[in-house]
Design brief:
It is an enzyme of class 2 (transferase). The protein is an alpha/beta fold. It folds into two domains: about 160 residues, Aspartate Aminotransferase, domain 1, CATH 3.90.1150.10; about 260 residues, 3-Layer(aba) Sandwich (Aspartate Aminotransferase, domain 2). It is about 40% helix and about 15% strand. It is built from 13 helices and 15 strands. The strands form three sheets. The chain has a seven-stranded mixed sheet, with helices on both faces. Helix 4 packs parallel to helix 10. The chain is globular. The two termini are about 35 Å apart. It binds ligand PLZ. The site of ligand PLZ has 16 residues, from helix 5.
């Protein structure tokens, strides 16, 4: 890891003067459609800290949206990627291959659930992995329909926009969208009309009924779900939901795809979140945490499904870039050596304990409608006191206060009312607690 002191330090306003200057250049040069949560320009980052160009050190509860689980300058990632950079930057795996790509695919076969024969293909972004999972499932099943879920997020490319549930900001004005995409209910326990305890059984029955009656199971190539829904609000489908959907897929020759782009690679305290209910997906999409910040994604799955696409049917110039593969091997090495699954579980214990305590101490504690998530993927859903009415303004205000104090937090959720915490798994416990202190103070000021 880089030698950045693992200490919060706020020495200017946030953003500081140098960030403000850079932001002015950015506004003039960068397209307005590309946003930033906090326009603080980064100088260096590592462990649980992001240091900005004004010398402020922010506690990182975002990990660049669940990417830098091993930290933003993990020793093994930097060492392996640097060595690869010096050897060669690119050949294109489709032109002349290299070992790192193969080694990443071997690691994916070992780490993903199930002991069947597995193969992988590598790409650059999460959206690209999801697109390719659909191509592979269609080639294998010779069917076209794709089923996705309420509150699901799968990317910003044309097909993945169609797969994504939320209109603003992801889809508005960007259509028409890819056809043959169908959305069905998910077991969102907190908001399920008959209560969380019924959500698993009722939502799966509804989803299956809609698939059967409206699409026809025989027409469905793939069912794609995030085992913990990320952008949609860190929704853990109520127990029983995922097994029921996976079983339905199996019974009907449908490829079951777990999108573990946000939830994978130790984030939830397991290598993959679907392991929580013993799910063995046919295909699994990964990205983000896989390579410690370098752009890499993958589709991994049953060898016979992965081999269904004709030779030459899958690829891309940069997919499985050698530097990104080296980074991935460094990230995976770090996850094993530091037992980051164990660390994620400890982060859950600390965070959920403190958040529950905060809720009980607050005079209007019921504005924290729900505390949920697993491992280092924890969120609180904010609502108006005494109701379940989403309170996006509260989430925004809390995030803003935290930012001003030097704690980077993110929001999410279909209603924009979820405050989410995604610290690097290597964050020190003192920083974790300091971040939680800031959240507690932010509630007091709300
Ligand atoms: N599938 C489950 O979480 C990316 C999106 C940020 P890309 N999530 C962060 C934003 O606003 O663009 C994501 C995900 C899941 C797919 C994706 C897409 O991954 O690498 O952003 O394409």
């Amino acid at each position: 890891m880089s030698d950045i002191p693992q200490e919060r330090r706020v020495v200017t306003a946030i953003p500081g003067p140098k960030s403000v200057e850079l932001q002015a250049r950015r506004v003039a040069a960068v397209a307005a459609g590309v946003g930033s949560t906090l326009p603080v320009f980064t100088a260096r980052a590592g462990g649980g800290i992001i240091e900005d160009v004004d010398g402020n050190r922010l506690i990182d509860f975002g990990s660049g949206i669940a990417v830098t689980s091993v930290g933003a300058s993990a020793e093994a990632v930097v060492r392996r990627a640097s060595a690869q950079l010096a050897d060669f930057t690119h050949t294109c795996f489709m032109v002349t291959p290299y070992e790192g790509y193969v080694e990443v695919c071997e690691q994916l076969a070992e780490l993903t659930p199930g002991d069947h024969a597995k193969k992988s293909a590598l790409f650059n972004s999460g959206a690209e992995a999801v697109e390719n999972a659909v191509k592979i499932a269609r080639a294998y099943t010779k069917r076209t329909a794709v089923v996705v879920f309420d509150h699901g997020y799968h990317g910003r490319t044309n097909l993945t926009m169609a797969l994504t549930a939320k209109n603003m900001p992801y889809k508005q004005g960007f259509g028409p969208f890819a056809p043959e995409v169908y959305r069905v209910p998910v077991a969102y326990g907190y908001r399920w009309p008959t209560g969380a305890e019924n959500a698993g059984a009722e939502a799966s029955a509804q989803a299956i009924d809609e698939i059967t009656k409206q699409i026809g199971a025989d027409n469905v190539a793939a069912i794609i779900i995030e085992p913990v829904l990320g952008e949609g609000g860190f929704i853990e489908p109520a127990k029983g939901f995922l097994p029921a959907i996976a079983q339905f897929a199996k019974d009907n020759g449908i490829v079951f795809v777990a999108d573990e782009i946000q939830s994978g690679f130790c984030r939830t305290g397991q290598w993959f979140a679907c392991e929580d209910e013993g799910i063995v997906p046919d295909l699994i999409t990964t990205a983000k945490g896989i390579a410690g910040g370098l752009p890499l994604s993958a589709v991994t799955g049953r060898a016979e499904i992965m081999d269904a696409a004709h030779a030459g049917g899958l690829g891309g110039t940069y997919g499985g870039n050698p530097v990104a593969c080296a980074g991935a091997l460094g990230a995976i090495e770090t996850m094993r050596e530091l037992d980051l699954n164990g660390r994620a579980k400890r982060i859950e214990e600390v965070m959920k304990g403190r958040l529950a305590e905060m809720r009980s101490k607050l005079p209007n504690g019921d504005i924290i409608g729900d505390i949920r998530g697993r491992g280092a993927m924890i969120a609180i859903e904010l609502v108006k006191a005494g109701t379940k009415e989403p309170d996006a303004a509260a989430a925004g205000a809390l995030a803003k206060t935290c930012h001003g104090e030097g704690l980077l937090v993110l929001t999410c959720g279909t209603y924009g009312n979820v405050l989410r915490f995604l610290p690097p798994l290597v964050i020190g416990e003192d920083l974790l607690n300091e971040g939680l202190d800031i959240i507690e103070q932010a509630f007091a000021r709300l």
